[in-house]
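During the no-cost extension, the postdoctoral fellow (Dr. R.K.) reprocessed legacy sequence entries with the updated structure-token encoder. One reprocessed record is reproduced below for audit purposes.
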Amino acid sequence: MNGPLRADEIVGGRYRVTNYHAEGGMQFVYRATDTLTSRIVALKTPKNSSASKRFKRSAVVAAQVNHPNVAKTLDYVNEEGKEFLIEEFIEGQDLQKSLLNSCSNLDPYLTAKLFHHISKGVSAAHHAKVIHRDLKPTNIMIAGDFDLIEIKITDFGIAKMASDVLDEAAAGGPETMLLSNTAVGALPYMAPEAIETPKEITTKADIWSVGAMLFHISTGILPFGEGLKAVRKILEAVPEAVPDHATRNPQFAPLVTQILDLASSCLKLDPNERPTADQLVKSCGDLYYSLAHREHGKVTRVFDHKKFGFISSGKGPVFFHANSVYGTEPLIVGDQVCFTRHHVDGGAAPRAHPVLKMKN
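Re-encoded structure tokens follow.
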């Protein structure tokens, strides 16, 4: 297993490690500087021998895809038996850490924008004859917080085949547990054929994964449940019922319904019935979403049985109405929220719409 690198260590004769940045189930990620170009890069190294076997494959596969919504692979280094993958550095975190850990689900405007860009990246990969195999929130990098300034897919080709993962999970052992835990996080987004016939999957397995993420991020629940318990439901292609809160609010219901219909089309048991990535790009592009700036604030006042109130932020107070709040519960004083500010003619207080409740 490759342990953490030291600051100022040089890799491949040119990449100077700046600091540890993050880690996933399979790899450590460092911020580094390319001393030849002064460019900041992401330097990845596998945690264990099993991941190491797939690292070069990831470099070769990802290098075939050139698109703004795909993290660019810059170099691959094998030095003294250690593997290193060099990618463009993204000033942000993965989708799970950056957004989903902060709120139960995203409002439909954010969801539509997010998946329009994800589908573009997937489409570019499929045109390059590349199947990702492991699309999930931790493999989507986000820069710009809720403004979604950059959205990039990463970690092509690193995923283990589901059958191998399940076999290892049953076998036991310390390293196996690490791998199976990683797989358990991926299973809720895996297509049925990725579990049953992983060596025969097509691009349509990625489409299923996009649909599973779309359902999860819109509703706040995983379409087939968590971990190994999800396998049976995935093989039956019977997702959970859509929670009432997703379509309760008439301000959001039409767009949410369009998004969930799109997710449903991706989660067809027969891969041939799922849309292509190009069709997904077209469908997502037809959804309405705003490019307006999002800001964070705190609910300071609530009136008339929580029907309306005021939010305080660094830019001053802003009025909100309950119809503009997307989520499961009404807002109360002290709630942290994310919203877009709209200025109103006539000197009235600015209005917040949409308003998304954060986890306190």
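Residues 108-127 form the longest helix (20 residues). The first strand starts at residue 10 and ends at 11. The remaining legacy entries will be reprocessed before the final report is submitted.
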